Amino acid sequence: MATVTTQQVESRVIETLASFGPDQSQITRQATFEELDIDSLDLVELAQVVEDDYGVVLKGEDMKELKTVGDAIDLIVERAE
Amino acid sequence: MAGADKKQVVVTGIGAVTPLGIGAAPLHERWAAGECGIDGGAGACREFDPKDRLSVKEARRLDRFSQFALVAAGEAIDQAWGEQSPYDPLRVGCIVATGIGGIETVETQHDVMRDRGAKNVSPLGIPQYMPNAAAAAVSMKYGLQGQMYGVVSACSGGAHAIGSALRMLQYGDADAVVCGGAEATLTEFGFACFNSLQALSPTGISRPFDARRDGFVMGEGAGILVLEEAQAAKARGATILGEVAGYGSTSDAFHLTAPEPSGGPASRAIELALSDAGLSADDVSYVNAHGTSTQLNDAAETVAIKRALGEQRAKRIPVSSTKSTIGHLLGAAGAVEAVATVLTLQTRVIPPTLGYEEPDPELDLDYVPGEARPLLIDNGHPPAAISNSFAFGGHNVALVLRGASA
Fold first, then answer.
1. How far is residue B280's CA from residue A51's CA, in Å, rounded to a whole number?
2. Which of B49, B58, B90, B255 could form a disulfide with B54 if both were Cys (CB 3.0 to 4.6 A apart)?
3. What is the Cα–Cα distance from B13 to B81, expressed in whole angstroms?
4. Among B36, B155, B160, B179, which one carries the catalytic annotation?
């Protein structure tokens, strides 16, 4: 699999989260899922997209630790390497 | 429960999403004006766009039937009390029926599974298509923490929801209940199933009680009412739109889809509802019929009405069917029709059975042909009406609604 860049993951994650409801301008690396009203169901959907695109499998226990958008991006990039 | 012990229950809010538009008022006004919401053999809510009325998050988490319910509930709650509920949230219930549930979600996610594999099925599938999803959505959005559930009884679900809400209030288990029904079954699979059953009109015309009636026309939408215990509603100065005075329900135990032809169990439901309301056939000024436009229902319902009210009295009561203007909304039908009946009693305008032109010699009641007419009352009391709902499975439900006291 071709190397995945942080930038690619970041834009895919932001695009996906924006489709769940929050305004795209609010979705920064520092924004917390709580602030964005992103809940556990949204994160399961995000995990499906990530697995489809990057082959990275994120389980419930992985997601529990995630607090911010940046946390999610970093985890995905780390696992994709 | 003895009549004297029962609490009185009033209607303080109504809301609807129907093929005649968004809102309760357009449903009654357009129907009374003779407008038909059916087009191309279906009653679709063409004016409904979730983006206009729901957030992105709400819209994408709700199947279309729950979207209808949430919008109708918003209208009803806004009319009843607006932003701030006057009651302890734990004393406000929520009962929303559906005949089928989120069938569009089932179809879409089943396609995903076949095309892209089971792992790609949305985690929102179950919470969207479960039949209690509409009730849950209304409860969550409006903070209703009393008893909350969906009702499943096919085409009588909406009426069962109102009847169950009435009992909850009569017994003192709640101060208010948001109740009704929602349906969105105008999908490829929905049509295929009802067509196979030969239940739908091949001509695409809904003309209840007419000799040429050849099946029902499927519609979609939602109807929601806010019911309150009367003393509490009056004490807080609520505007009373009407009263849910009685509820009766029986079952045919006869056939999966055909009504029991003697009309015995169905007429008993009407008698029970009148008795619950403490009224007699002489007090009834209008019947909002189930009137599906199928051969069997309209014949059996006519027999049941005559049996319950007495042949002579029944012939003097105007009977019209909301399904002539919006089609059959299945699990939402009873609730939307109750909303229409509340407005009929309030405005004293009886909308007609549209398309009723050729009488069937066997069906000999006054089906309000042609155009709307004034609702007449002869005893000076607030007028009373019966709203009937019957369903596949053999369910019979009658509600007695009354106009508000002057």
1. 66
2. B58
3. 8
4. B155
Q: Does domain A6-80 have CATH number 1.10.1200.10?
A: yes
CA–CA separation, B316 vs B365, rounded Å?
A: 8
Q: Which residues of A touch B124 (CB under 8 A)?
A: 41, 45
Query: Can you tell me the distance from the alpha carbon of B118 to that of B104, in angstroms, rounded to the nearest whole number?
Result: 18
ipTM entry = 0.90
Using alpha carbons only, how large is chain A's radius of gyration in Å? 11
- Catalytic residue, from A23, A39, A62, A74: name it: A39
Distance CA B177, CA B94 (A): 5
Contact A51 B119 (CB under 8 A): yes
Question: Is B155 a residue of the active site?
Answer: yes
Q: How many CA atoms lie within 13 A of B150 on its CB side?
A: 26
**B107-146 per-position pLDDT tens digit:** 999 999 999 999 999 999 999 999 999 999 999 999 999 9
Catalytic: B328? Answer: yes
CATH architecture of B3-403: 3-Layer(aba) Sandwich (3.40)
Q: Which has the closest alpha carbon to B274: B110, B164, B386? A: B386
- Helical ranges in B278-390 per DSSP H: 295-309, 311-315, 323-326, 333-347
Subunit contact B123:A52, Cβ cutoff 8 A: no
Please report, for chain A, the start and end positions of each structural domain, with discontinuous segments joined by +. 6-80
* Per-domain boundaries in chain B: 3-403
pLDDT tens digit string along B329-372?
999 999 999 999 999 999 999 999 999 999 999 999 999 999 99
* DSSP for residue B225: E
